[in-house]
């Protein structure tokens, strides 16, 4: 009888459909949003057509990231035409950047909520129910959602993000993040530890600590007698269990200390992978970007990684066509790539973002055709480096954490090694969440192919 009532009640729950764009921070935020909404009686649906509320968590990092969202809003508009009762909300970085303008430009949007106002979502939706438009884009100096238990939206239940800080103070001259995410603030380490322990108890095997610049994580208690740095936090999380893998992202070259590297070297379960965005190989451009380091400083950090963690994978972000970038600067980026030998890179064309220092003071003067050619050269070179990195793995044996069945073959699992490279191998009697020793026998452009190792 009780069960029946529950089921009947469930039918009445308003349904929330949520779509997420942008970085890991947004993925983690959507999990906070779902938690807030579930507490107020919403249930999540994956079918947009049965939704009562459609939320799109947006990214403003480059012009094309915003274009994608406008495209989606057109689709939602069609849905709302057929079902006028559905409420459409834009949340996240684009909501913060455009504020009320979003509703002015797209009348179908009912709700605009910035990244620090998610607790208010249910209340704002009540305003919308009563026929008003609702906007809350107030940024906070304190909000970290520390007490909210995110509802994990991933399918495999193996790996989860934990947001350890919010915002950014770095003011790289091209970047919109400080404007849409506000000032940097670190989250209470106690709440991070509780979340990590809870995930491990629920069967998760990997935790990714995330923030725009994890190296500047710094928790201070009120009297300033005690503080916790990123290296200390990393060590505490690693101690939860040797069966729990720890990853983190993003490291910042100007702040990445040897302390973090030594902690990584001490704990086998902290993965051997550092994402260290370089942006450019030219000191002149790095200075104009306000990155806070030179090429030499960056290379010193790379050498420290190679010295302290010889098996560590290094990945990066690169941007081409920043204002004033010459052919010479571009060549320096290519030579930096060769010098470091990146395992993988995310590569972008500079996109001018309103309000940033670069938009206000530097002319976007690299010709589009030059940006395209330079980006192609960067992508081609990275293709070679990535292939070389995989070839070096042939014959090696890696511990792989199984994440799921390979998309290409039902008889194979896929997982990742400590270096964050995807490995595919025969399923045998293993199951998702197992750690398996795999010997690499072949590779494609994106994947390592292996066999379960008989001896190691
Ligand atoms: N906090 C991270 C980066 C976050 S944004 C860091 O500092 O490394 C992710 C990447 O997007 C950046 O590393 C940069 O390469 C790229 N990016 C940021 N702003 C951009 C812009 N205006 N145009 C093109 N790429 C940009
Ligand atoms: Fe943007 Fe720089 Fe902050 Fe990264 S560190 S989010 S690039 S301002
Ligand atoms: Fe995009 Fe916002 Fe992340 S601008 S990259 S979603 S912090």
Characterization of this structure:
With 456 residues, this protein is an alpha/beta fold. Among the domains are: 2-136, Methylthiotransferase, N-terminal domain (Rossmann fold); 154-271, Transcription Regulator spoIIAA; 397-452, Nucleic acid-binding proteins (OB fold (Dihydrolipoamide Acetyltransferase, E2P)), CATH 2.40.50. Helix content is 36%, strand content 22%. It has helices at residues 2-12, 24-39, 63-82, 93-98, 101-105, 121-129, 177-181, 189-201, 230-238, 258-266, 283-288, 295-308, 327-340, 357-361, 368-391; strands at 15-20, 43-44, 53-58, 87-92, 111-113, 134-136, 159-163, 165-166, 185-186, 206-210, 218-220, 227-229, 245-249, 273-275, 313-320, 344-349, 397-405, 412-416, 422-426, 435-443, 448-452. The chain has a 6-stranded parallel sheet, with helices on both faces. It has a 5-stranded mixed beta barrel with strand order 17-18-19-21-20. Helix 9 (230-238) packs parallel to helix 10 and helix 13 runs parallel beside helix 15 (368-391). The longest helix has 24 residues, at 368-391. The protein is globular. The N and C termini lie far apart (57 Å). The model is unreliable at 1-10 (pLDDT under 50).
């Amino acid at each position: 009888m009780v069960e029946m009532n529950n089921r009947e009640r469930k039918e009445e729950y308003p349904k929330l459909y949520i779509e997420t764009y942008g970085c890991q921070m947004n993925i983690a935020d959507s999990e906070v949003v779902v938690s807030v909404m579930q507490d107020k009686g919403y249930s999540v649906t994956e079918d947009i057509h049965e939704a009562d509320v459609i939320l799109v968590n947006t990214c403003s990092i480059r012009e094309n990231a915003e274009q994608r969202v406008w495209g989606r809003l057109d689709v939602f508009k069609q849905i709302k035409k057929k079902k006028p009762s559905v409420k459409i909300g834009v949340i996240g970085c684009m909501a913060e950047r455009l504020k009320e303008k979003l509703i002015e430009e797209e009348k179908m949007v009912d709700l605009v909520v910035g990244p620090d106002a998610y607790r208010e979502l249910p209340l704002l939706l009540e305003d919308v129910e009563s026929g008003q438009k609702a906007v809350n884009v107030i940024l906070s100096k304190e909000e970290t959602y520390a007490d909210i238990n995110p509802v994990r939206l991933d399918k495999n239940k193996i790996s989860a993000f934990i947001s350890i800080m919010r915002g950014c103070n770095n003011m790289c001259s091209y970047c919109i993040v400080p404007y849409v995410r506000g000032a940097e603030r670190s989250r209470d380490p106690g709440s991070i530890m509780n979340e990590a322990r809870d995930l491990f108890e629920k069967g998760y095997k990997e935790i990714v600590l995330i923030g725009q610049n994890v190296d500047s994580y710094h928790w201070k208690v009120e009297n300033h007698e005690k503080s916790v740095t990123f290296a200390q936090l990393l060590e505490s999380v690693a101690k939860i269990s040797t069966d729990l893998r720890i990853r983190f992202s993003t490291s910042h070259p100007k702040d990445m200390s040897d302390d973090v590297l030594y902690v990584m070297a001490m704990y086998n379960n902290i993965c051997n992978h550092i994402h260290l965005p370089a942006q450019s190989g030219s000191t002149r451009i790095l200075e104009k970007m306000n990155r806070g380091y030179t090429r030499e400083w960056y290379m010193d950090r790379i050498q420290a990684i190679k010295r302290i963690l010889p098996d560590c994978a290094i990945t990066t972000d690169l941007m081409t066509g920043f204002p004033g970038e010459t052919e010479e600067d571009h060549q320096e980026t290519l030579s930096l790539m060769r010098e470091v030998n990146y395992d993988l890179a995310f590569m972008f064309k500079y996109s001018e973002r309103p309000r940033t220092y670069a938009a206000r003071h530097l002319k976007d003067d690299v010709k589009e055709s030059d940006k395209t050619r330079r980006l192609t050269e960067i992508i081609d070179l990275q293709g070679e480096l990535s292939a070389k990195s995989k070839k070096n793995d042939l014959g090696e044996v890696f511990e792989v954490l199984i994440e799921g069945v390979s998309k290409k073959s039902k008889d194979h699992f896929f997982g990742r090694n400590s270096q964050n490279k995807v490995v595919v191998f025969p399923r045998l009697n293993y199951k998702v969440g197992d750690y398996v020793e795999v010997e690499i026998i072949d590779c494609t452009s994106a994947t390592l192919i292996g066999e379960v190792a008989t001896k190691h």
